[in-house]
Fold these 2 entries.
Entry 1:
Amino acid sequence: MDKHRNSMDEFKQSRYNYRFQDEDQWIYFNGVTKKFIPIPSILHDMVETYLESPEKAMHESPSFFASMLDAGLLIKADQDELDVIRAQYNALRNDASYQLMLTLDGGFLPFSQNGHAQGHHTLMQLLPLHLERYIKENNIKHLQLEWIEKSMHPSNYEIIKELSSSALRLCKQEGVELSLRLTLQDGLFEDRLMALLTDLSVQSIRFALKNDFKQSVSSKQAFVDRIRIMMDRFPSLAFVFFAQENEEGSFLTSWIPIFNAKIEKSERQRISFFVRGHELFNSEQESAREKMLFKIHQDGYNLQWNNVLPSLCLTEKKHAFVMNAVGDVAKCLLTLDRTANGYLSSHGNIFWDETMARTDNEIPFFENVRCLLCKHLPICMGQCIPAKRNAKVIVNENDECLLPPWYISPAKVIELYCKQRLDRYLNEGNVDE
Ligand code: SF4
């Protein structure tokens, strides 16, 4: 008897299989396992037959049948894949990683002070207490602190330095891994920022590139020259640049050639680009964006296809909050446009105003008919929904979803992800991370 079955077992094709042609091969990918199998084109018909008739595969080619089972292309007939996806969702939602976004000057935060702040108890006084308490009470293993500031304002510099250093000491003491991030709108080359990067081991800087098409080539060149200097000075620092597409032209034609001229290909994995435009592109614009992303990938930049998920919108994560200088707390940086609904108490815990809805309510965004029937569910986990909501886009039932942060179709993200893994396999002989 075959080791993969007993006489009661029946098999079926997964609902979440993708297939696409790549030159002389077909790539089969499963969204639940995130595994893929490349197949020579000549065997494509045979694989399709096996997916339709797993019994045939089992008898004719037991080892290939075993590979299809391992990749999740075939599953047991009585397996409910939605149960597996819900379990994946819960593991992601509850994982022991605390993501805390902080802002002192309001950063990009639209929310105003809501009067809950506890008098003189500012973030400066309460954050160390809060972190210690939260980490211990929730058995946190990884802390990600992200400072979101318009620029490195002089009055904030010392505070950021001191609070980050205190988090560093705490994490060391508690055996917690710490990641520090900075997201800035301006002041990327200020001395104060350089000093901070020297003092703290910041992992990544996120920065909005100006999509000003009137900006001269020489000023863009000067900008990239300074990035080059920063890369040399901080060899483990990663850069994430955001740009906004607009009708005046494409980001690719304006910035990428300048980056290419100044940054060696071997260094470009430290740089990621994410380009946003209007959430609902027509198919022509979407295809242009796919081509642009693929070109950026071919040029050697890190488009983070490896994060192909599933990853959740932070509002759905149990341990993810946004805080401002006076201790107002919210679940989401973007959706909160009037008031925060939580605040830090003088004991360092978060109190929530239960009269206001907050979105970590344990019901996944994807528990709706459209997502539950969608073949991209294990990749997307309903992520497109808040993205659209935030962009205040009215979602039409027939609109295809675009997956953040790339804002192309989930199927295309999978294709680019698999191609990248295969490239790496051909170059380094290792398809796994
Ligand atoms: S792609 Fe759209 S419909 Fe599908 S799971 Fe994501 S949000 Fe839901």
Entry 2:
Amino acid sequence: MGDTERLVKKAAKNLYRVLEDPEFWTPEFCRTFFDWYDVEAHENPNSALVRGQLALELAGKTGDIHTMAKGHGLMATAYRRDAIARAGGEIQAALKLAGSCPCCLSDIYRRLGGILLHQQNFVEAKDCLDKAIAAYRELGDEDGIGRTLVSRGVAWWKLGEIDAALSDERRALHLLVPPTPELFYLAALTNQAAFLATGEQRHFVQAEPFLSGVRGQLAGIRGITAVRIVLSWIHGLVLARLGDRQRALQMLRNTRSRLLRRRQDAEVVAITADISNLYCDTRKYRSIVDLVSDSLSRLGDVSGTRVLLKNVLAAAERELDETRRRLAEVRNAVAVSVPTLNTCPTLSSVVTP
Ligand SMILES: [Zn+2]
């Protein structure tokens, strides 16, 4: 067993031990810990901030400038969901420590590109990710290039360039090999599924077989519930677009239950809108009222969507055509990792670790 591997096992038994025992205070262990963090933050988004703080504190213990710069970059990613101003502050702190070091700058640009994607600044995001790739290339860091391509594919897609987007994700698949966490590879697969699902007919015809293939490929892998949920959500939307309403509804409702159990509230709001849209197609307003009421009774005010959900309810109760517009308002108010279907791609969002 390698030394890092032994330390990872030790840290897993009690996470806070990493701040107490100097054995953990090395750049090598931090690199592994940061990777672990990225995977965990994706799987358990609700604990991302607390664990991000832990990673940053650990970075400080090493006294290594490069590790500390990357720690601030990681913390910026942790803040992107709920505290965007703080994310900016962390990027500034990271840049200050980085100076002109390409090993730090590549990492910071990659993180910043992901944050800009989250803020829907797609042109800036792509520029930033281009810079990250150039810096990684200078270092000969293929793993870094692969990780960045996963995000740049999303930027291309948002800019309406689906072929360029797919090409980035496919190139990423070749570069993302162990010990890179599997999550990045899975994100490249998930993104391709989303791009195909929302693309033109020539893309869309590949979506169903691609999704079935990926879900088969994942059958034996453990601990990737979040990825599996995203894929089944996209699959449900694809089935809906194919006209297989019954299977689509079943898959989406099932996905919604899993999201409820995991307390992924923003996602519950979004999928409630997606399912309601399907009901809208056949004017099943009663089902929309039931579903939206259920969401209102279980959730708090997620990103100010409570009033928007009530608007949906009011429109659906009176069986008004405006229900669909009200649903779009709900869907656009939450940032989630699954795109809306049958809408302009620039309104939606996709997975970026
Ligand atoms: Zn550096």
